[in-house]
Amino acid sequence: MNVHTPDARGAFAVPTSMRYNAVENYIRNTTFDRPTLVLDTDIVAQHYQQLKAGLGNANIHYAVKANPTREIIETLVAQGSHFDAASRGEIELCLSLGAQPSDISFGNTVKRASDIAFAYHAGITLFAADAEEELEKLAEHAPKSEVYIRLIVDASEADWPLSRKFGCARDKALSLLGYARDLGLKPVGFSFHVGSQTRRSAMWTVTLDQIAQVWTDAHAAGFELDLLNIGGGFPAFYGEEIEGPTAYAAGVMKLVHARFGNVPRIMAEPGRGLVAEAGMIAAEVLLVSKKSNNDTHRWVYLDIGKFSGLAETMDEAIRYQFVTDRDHEDTGACILAGPSCDSADVLYELRPVQLPLGLKSGDKIMIRNCGAYTSSYSSVGFNGFPPLAVEVI
Amino acid sequence: MNVHTPDARGAFAVPTSMRYNAVENYIRNTTFDRPTLVLDTDIVAQHYQQLKAGLGNANIHYAVKANPTREIIETLVAQGSHFDAASRGEIELCLSLGAQPSDISFGNTVKRASDIAFAYHAGITLFAADAEEELEKLAEHAPKSEVYIRLIVDASEADWPLSRKFGCARDKALSLLGYARDLGLKPVGFSFHVGSQTRRSAMWTVTLDQIAQVWTDAHAAGFELDLLNIGGGFPAFYGEEIEGPTAYAAGVMKLVHARFGNVPRIMAEPGRGLVAEAGMIAAEVLLVSKKSNNDTHRWVYLDIGKFSGLAETMDEAIRYQFVTDRDHEDTGACILAGPSCDSADVLYELRPVQLPLGLKSGDKIMIRNCGAYTSSYSSVGFNGFPPLAVEVI
């Protein structure tokens, strides 16, 4: 399977073969009565293997939040994946589908105390924290557990840099390790996140330099750390060049080893990079219009929007690619919007999308590489629209 | 019931008595195991009566999308309310709870063709449109129906002005009326939306002036319009002064009558203004932390966030008010964030919130006036967190 065909420049790749995969054929030959995410778990398995080939002995902890569809978890359990869970709900899901407690980390730095207790009694022994109060909760409800401290990353070359919501500044890192030890926990290492959709491995350099300095300082201060959690950031193809998964993962590991030496345990938490390219959304055009007699662009309204699966269009961060049966026609600039009676449900306006001039109400429209951060984001029923349907082929 | 106590300036009002209402007492005396919206339908009925007292013979079409909870719809059916539906799902809901088809308008300007056909066969005869293609869909699937044309509003003094997503520019208004007539539909009038959370009736003046000009032009061109849909924009109390509901509605109607004379049919579509103050969310503090040793503010993480009910915090648009058991303590600036492992799930950061210095993990926190645009926005299970629970007392 040649998902990422190297382009003329060799190192980078564009997933050209995705254009004619099983998912797209299935959508072309199926009638849907509501927006539907169609997933191919074979692609998930392939991506797992491709990433694993580059990551070497680092463990993949799939970020379940990216897509908790049952068949994806089952596929990854069968592949030997580990899991990064954000909540009790995700832990229960993974356990119910055969994951071992020892393969699940509770990676949310903001946990409900009762959920910590649940995880502890379920046999989970590895937790994230970035604050004193979180360590106190862990000491009380998951005594003697292993904990890694999440650090804030200052510099990011990601398409979607993270906010400061997660992690502590580096000036607090060592005191939190010490506090964890004082509380009877086992401080085992650090985690960080390089930023969502970091398209090339070389973009990790500055962040890894920063984290390595803290790692060195911690060892110098007497902490015997053995775990480095390099988080997510593994990219998916949304139209801009990305490095292929194996080369990308190997590139990151090379940078890691050069700075951290042989760390006994390395964790990586791909979500988007594992599942985004495994699914396409089958959607429909509801209306094409012009607002004014002298408008230069058209408005295209789809039956899926910001509140029914395409939440990652917020601030136009993730730019999805669209496929229609009219892609041979001339195109024009379109503002793209969702179906709800919500003025904020506009997908792309600052940077309009080129779509065929003949596009009209009732036309099928396919949205590529939507396997991550779509179905679970969709609302329970805003405006009376049902949540995004999911089909696995 | 004295929801809006006039303040010293007479005309404007602050809902002081909300502080000790039944919802707040219920939350204080109840233990919740997940974030829960608690609703009091008596307040919905009161607000309906208060708005109706100011609106006179204008019909209230409740914007169902604001909160489709069954008991709210039942309360409003009993009050004699009409309904503005955004989708087939909302139409089915209203019909199943006793609303008459003749009291339901299909107000979404972007409708699936099959949903138009469903509505037509269910007996609904009044539809919105803002584009040629939408009129063609109506002519085919709801022949001879009444249609009103939605206009874009240029100027808005709303707290949350709408985008250009809905409506056509005024230069297209008359041609759309004509096209509707040519297609065999009955063009009956115009609609507009002054902008969400328009806090004082005087703020409607410029918009009404604009719409009245189009109305006059249409009559001069021979269109016998008899329906004016003034849309929503009716405010709720989020901490900034608003005009009380009866005075507000009467103020708007006075401006309308001065510009449009005696229009046979006037529709108003309050959503937020009817139900927001009827509910509070019971939530919990999960973590209080500082990111760095020299941070001047704290981070407070709640068990509810942008993807589990508080979507209207996007761009910090709606600023909710928080109540804790420590409100007598000194306060400090806090950045407020939700529980999900999503970096974008930060509620208030640009303008931090003052919260008690003693606030800590496990503390109950109540969020005022959350009856609108919360529960139906919440995700099906992002990060494994269940959707916002709803209880009606």
UniProtKB/TrEMBL annotation, chains A, B:
Cofactors, names only: pyridoxal 5'-phosphate
Lyase listed as a keyword: yes
The ANK repeat ranges on this chain: 55-88
Uppermost EC category: lyase
Protein name in UniProt: ornithine decarboxylase
Family: Belongs to the Orn/Lys/Arg decarboxylase class-II family.
Residues bearing the modification N6-(pyridoxal phosphate)lysine: 65
Catalysed conversion reaction: L-ornithine + H(+) = putrescine + CO2
Keyword line: ANK repeat, Lyase, Pyridoxal phosphate
A molecular function GO annotation: ornithine decarboxylase activity
Keyword Cell membrane carried by entry: no
GO CC terms in record: cytoplasm
Source organism of the structure: Paramylibacter kogurei
InterPro entries: Ala_racemase/Decarboxylase_C, Ankyrin_rpt, De-COase2_N, De-COase2_pyr-phos_BS, Orn/DAP/Arg_de-COase, Orn_de-COase, PLP-binding_barrel
Pathway(s) where this gene product acts: Amine and polyamine biosynthesis; putrescine biosynthesis via L-ornithine pathway; putrescine from L-ornithine: step 1/1
EC number: 4.1.1.17
Entries under CDD domains matching the protein: PLPDE_III_ODC
Signal peptide extent: none
Orn/DAP/Arg decarboxylase 2 N-terminal domain location: 44-276
Residues the record marks as active site: 341
Gene Ontology biological process terms from the UniProt entry: putrescine biosynthetic process from arginine, via ornithine
